[in-house]
Amino acid sequence: FTHLSSLQQPRNPDNLYPVEVAFNSQQQSLRWESIQPYVLVNGELYPLHPVPLVQNRWEGLVPVSPGANSVNYRFKFDYKYNNIGTQPKSNSAHSPAYKLTIVDQ
Predict the structure, then answer these.
(1) 34 to 9, 37, 67, 71, 91: CA distances (angstroms)
(2) Are strands 98-103 and 8-10 parallel, antiparallel or unpaired?
(3) Which among 69, 14, 78, 9 has a CA at the least distance from the CA of 47?
(4) Which in 3, 35, 48, 86 has the greatest CB count within 10 A?
(5) Which class for 91: exposed (0-12), middle (13-18), buried (19 or more C-beta within 10 A)?
(6) Number of C-beta neighbours around residue 62 at 10 A
(7) CA–CA separation, 10 vs 27, rounded Å?
(8) Which residues pair with 54 in a beta bridge?
(9) Which residue has the higher pLDDT, 32 or 46?
(10) What confidence score (pLDDT) does residue 26 get?
(11) Residue 88 CB: number of other CB atoms within 10 A?
């Protein structure tokens, strides 16, 4: 995982803050077309979307409660991988935890 967004953002009226991540894997059996990326915030999964024209990068929005000064989140990628002699199997990968700080202006 490569975290690509700022960990400090100015407060905005919609309480949604953009995040972006790159995901790379050396796992040759990974089925790239099966990836389902999410951002995990307070136990809730929010889908990420591919960044146009860029491979292996995804973006999404992290909700932050009005008045909160920070939120912790992490990325979760569900995927399938090829397994010899059987159907593809499911797995997931989690990023380290990140802390987004909201700055009042």
Answers:
(1) 32, 10, 37, 29, 11
(2) parallel
(3) 78
(4) 48
(5) middle
(6) 21
(7) 38
(8) none
(9) 46
(10) 86
(11) 14
Using alpha carbons, select from 53, 55, 56, 98 the residue that is nearest to residue 75.
Answer: 98
**What pLDDT shows up at residue 49?**
97
Instruction: At 95, list the tokens.
Output: 């990023």
Q: List, as one string, the DSSP characters of the chain.
A: -EE-S-SEEE--TT-EEEEEEE-----TTEEEEEEEEEEEETTEEEE-EEPTT-TTEEEEEEE--TT-SEEEEEEEEEEEE--TTS--EEEEEEPPPEEEEEE--
Beta bridge partners of 70: 101
The answer, yes or no, to whether residue 105 has pLDDT greater than 80, is: no
**Total residues belonging to the chain:** 105
